Amino acid sequence: MEASLVNRTVQLFNLVHTAMPNGFGHTNFLRVRTLEDLASVWMGRIRMGLRRAYFHDNATFKTTEAAIEALLAVNEDTNPAEEAPAAGPGA
Fold it and tell me: Cα 24 vs. chain centroid, distance in angstroms?
């Protein structure tokens, strides 16, 4: 796996783990091999749970969602490790 994908995966995990009231398991990322896989984990496993966790706090959900979407949309030519870490809830 490319270093840039590893960095994005770790950043995504940190955002979600911090945002979820009871944390988030790292095993959800075991099968990630491409950026598309990472986006699928976000859309298929994480987004709905995060939405439910912040059902009454739309602002926090939107902030976290925007940070994750930006992380997934980073240009392939840049190195996410060189970029500023994405802001999560409470940042």
Answer: 11
